[in-house]
Amino acid sequence: MNRLPSWFKQEIPERIVFSRLRLLSEFKLRTVCQEARCPNLSRCFKNSRLAFIILGENCTRNCRFCAVKKSHAQPLALDLDEPRRIAQAVKELGLNYVVITSVTRDDLPDSGAELFARSLELIHNFNQGIKVEVLIPDFSGNVSSLKTVIDARPCVMAHNLETVQRLYKEIRPQANYEVSLELLRKIRKLKPGLTTKSALMLGLGETEAEVFDAMADLRRVDCDILTLGQYLAPSAEHYPVKEFIHPQQFQNYYRMGVGLGFKLVLCGPLVRSSYQAQEVYHEVANV
After folding, report:
1. Which of 80, 178, 225, 242 would disulfide-bridge 197, Cβ 3.0–4.6 Å?
2. Gap between the Cα atoms of 68 and 186, Å rounded
3. Contact 267, 248 (CB under 8 A)
4. Domain region containing 178
5. DSSP one-letter string for 248-273
6. Strand pairing category for 131-135 and 51-54
């Protein structure tokens, strides 16, 4: 399945997109938009929608869908100055909503939670009005790491389920479906009013019934927001696309999600976990 369906269209990059890419390069910062080869990069960069990725360029896990570099070498580099440069870039770009995510760092005692917290702190020190959404790894289920990030006052706490339970062993062998669900439940327990969010990629070979079960599991841990998008293999070496989900089927999933009680469901071929994050937050928070 190498040929994309007709509904996949990408914008031609404008000058402002290249200028923002240059600025990120100057600050030695990376975005998940670039690392994950997101098809929405031009549109999002043009509209000042950036999702920074922290904790280095190498992930300690080997998810078969992911384009981020993998390494199990010890020790991996950790850039302690990264939070300062992110805050500086946020100021330079005039952002008022920021998404921060990371690679998974199982080699660190806190899984990198302190750098998440430090990034939020420095952004808030610059401007208390800036909203920061975090998309965190599972922190190996560590409550202390989770609390470190929550205490730094993100406006949204996201953790992606990514796929249905049956496919975890094949696609996410070092992750655990139940640990991810429990992480979202713990967020709700530690900070009841904090908005939570998760995402599923579709087209990996899941069935409609399995997608419904995953959505129902997310609602059981009181997840507020769900995004569903089409998986696109980053290369021939990655897990192959099993199916291109038709837009009409995405509408079916949207209706399922609304029926299950999510505050907001965002579905579509080009939807990603941080897609329209600012607009989604404002709609849910009624601001």
Report:
1. 225
2. 27
3. no
4. 15-285
5. HHHHHHHHHHHHHT-SEEEESTT--T
6. unpaired
